[in-house]
UniProtKB/TrEMBL annotation:
Signal peptide positions (record): 1-29
Solute-binding protein family domain residues: 89-463
Xref: InterPro entries: Peptide/Ni-bd, SBP_5, SBP_5_dom
Keyword 4Fe-4S in record: no
UniProt KW keywords: Signal
Descriptive protein name: ABC transporter substrate-binding protein
Pfam family for this entry, one: SBP_bac_5
Length: 541
């Protein structure tokens, strides 16, 4: 039995679901269904795809990492390079070719000709330079902060209208991959000139992608329409020219039962992150469930060493690691669609090392470590030391739809070791206001199909997950990104993980995964390398 009651409908949710089903009965649906595996026929142009997302959209700056936002922006802004999600290889896109200097400090890119932004302006070397400079250096006058993914960027020189020369201060083995991720989409000069707040408006996103913004309030709904003159997709795409779909309509629907009901009644075509309990329901009415591991960090609890808490003790942190049963988390709170966490990195992420030796469930070890640290069981089973209860607050993180179920399982597991967990379920705005260096545990992950994502998360000059400077860890992180020999870099990445897990700075929970429910008429649905939906090749049968 699952610990959370996600399948129980509130009266409000039940009413919404009933309304969706009634609408379906009146309309008869809007699309004919077909078996996606065999009788769909040839791709056809036209149709409106309806995409339901459980999380409201926030400000629309291109670097916004919110899953709901980035599932939209991947379809608006093309990147210099494309990471093939099947092979992991970096391929040409807006940059049709490049060369790298022997010292790995200079990258010379030839920019694709004939590309335009949706406002009619042309892609050239200058706009590429201006995009990269603003990412790396920020712009104080416009209120734009530097993007931590662009560490060691030294500048870009325009060689000619179609050639740029990018300089790095230190070698970066993941630099070409940085240029392929959703947050580094190349945008028009009109976007770059706007201040931070104006960049956050949906209509400010002027890219060169296969779709353009057509409407929506940018908070609970977004409408995109096809660019009919688009003709510069990556060569590994299934087709070239304009996209098949005429429109994509995104709607936020937090109530899972309503979203699944809409999928069944043909009012929605794709639902992002359906609840684990609903996967069999979707399959039962003929829908499809497709799961995509989000390469990059596993979903984990980061531990702040700046917080005045018992977790400053290494023994306590290691005890909590040993008290965490990841297999049980998967079985109770999740589904087989999700991988059991065995590393700081999701399985399939390039060069991801196996960290199973640090992540074994061992409740006896957890109790021994807590005893050694001076925490003795109280009358109610919760441990105490010098009159203080071994008690923590865990936040239900609104970014992750499975967070409630996962932390409920964790609460039960840690209680067996004598650790009290109080759960707090804030709204999105409350969560963002409260989380900080004094928050002992923060559930999170960064997605990027490149192991250097660990540097973005853990280096004290970047995100700094521990809120504390750890010089030895910084050196390890810098060493792995400067190493281009594959075998040596693999060893360097393992050294980073060994440090983090040996010191129990993070508690991996599960492999971050995006699970989509689809109607059978949705064909050639794909995501980019970090599981954001890419609708260029998609079509409706």
């Amino acid at each position: 039995m699952k610990l959370s009651q996600r399948r129980a409908l509130s009266p409000h949710g039940a009413a919404l679901a009933a309304a969706v089903l009634l609408l379906s009965a009146c309309s008869g649906g809007t699309q004919n269904t077909a078996n996606s595996s065999g009788d769909a026929g040839k791709p056809r142009y036209g149709g409106t795809l309806r995409f339901y997302d459980p999380v409201n959209y926030k400000a629309w700056q291109i670097t916004n990492t919110l899953w709901s936002n980035s599932n939209v922006t991947t379809n608006l802004a093309d990147r210099l390079t494309w990471q093939n999600p099947k092979t992991g290889k970096i391929e040409p896109w807006l940059a049709e070719s490049w060369t790298v200097s022997p010292d790995h400090l200079t990258y010379t890119f030839k920019i694709r000709s004939g590309v335009t932004f949706s406002d009619g302006s042309k892609l050239d070397a200058k706009v590429v330079k201006d995009n990269l400079d603003q990412h790396a250096f920020g712009d104080k006058k416009l209120g734009v902060a530097p993007d931590e993914f662009f560490a060691n960027y030294a500048g870009t020189k325009v060689v000619d209208p179609r050639t740029v020369q990018v300089r790095l201060s230190k070698p970066n083995a993941g630099f070409l991959q940085v240029l392929s991720i959703y947050r580094t989409g190349i945008l028009a000069e009109s976007y770059l000139k706007k201040n931070w707040n104006d960049k956050g408006k949906l209509t400010s996103l002027i890219g060169s992608g296969p779709f353009v913004v057509a409407g929506g309030n940018g908070t609970t709904n977004v409408a995109l329409k096809r660019r009919d003159d688009y003709n510069w997709a990556p060569k590994s795409s299934k087709h070239q020219g304009r996209a098949y779909l005429s429109e994509i309509r995104y709607t936020t629907v937090p109530e899972q039962s309503t979203a699944v009901g809409a999928l069944q009644s043909q009012q929605a075509d794709v639902v992002r992150n359906i609840a684990p309990d609903d996967e069999e329901t979707v399959k039962g009415f003929g829908g499809r469930v497709e799961a995509f591991p989000a390469q990059g960090e596993s979903n984990q609890l980061h531990i702040s060493l700046a917080a005045n808490a018992p977790t400053r003790s290494l023994e306590v942190r290691r005890a909590l690691q040993a008290a965490t049963d990841r297999k049980e988390i998967n079985e109770i709170a999740l589904s087989p669609s999700y991988g059991v966490a065995k590393s700081l990195l999701v399985h399939g992420t390039p060069k991801a090392p196996d960290g199973s030796a640090y992540l074994r469930y061992d409740p006896a070890k957890a109790k021994r470590l807590l005893e050694a640290a001076g925490w003795k069981p109280g009358s109610d089973g919760i441990r105490k030391k010098d009159g203080e209860r071994l008690s923590f607050t865990l936040y239900v993180t609104p970014y992750y739809q499975v967070s409630q179920a996962v932390v409920e399982v964790l609460q039960s597991q840690w209680k067996k070791a004598g650790v009290e967990v109080r759960l707090k379920s804030p709204s999105m705005s409350q969560y963002e206001a409260e989380i900080g260096k004094n928050t002992v545990f923060t559930q999170g992950q960064l997605s990027r199909a490149e192991p250097d994502v660990l540097r973005s998360e853990w280096h004290s000059d970047l995100t700094n997950a521990t809120y504390t400077k750890l010089p030895e860890l910084n050196k390890l992180l810098e060493a792995q990104v400067a190493e281009f020999d594959p075998a040596k870099r693999t060893a360097d990445i393992k050294a980073v993980q060994d440090y983090v897990l040996k010191n129990a700075l993070a508690i991996p929970l599960y492999d971050e995964t995006q699970v989509f429910g689809l109607r059978p008429n949705v064909q050639d649905f794909r995501t980019e390398a970090v599981a954001r939906s890419q609708f260029y090749d998609a079509w409706l049968s």
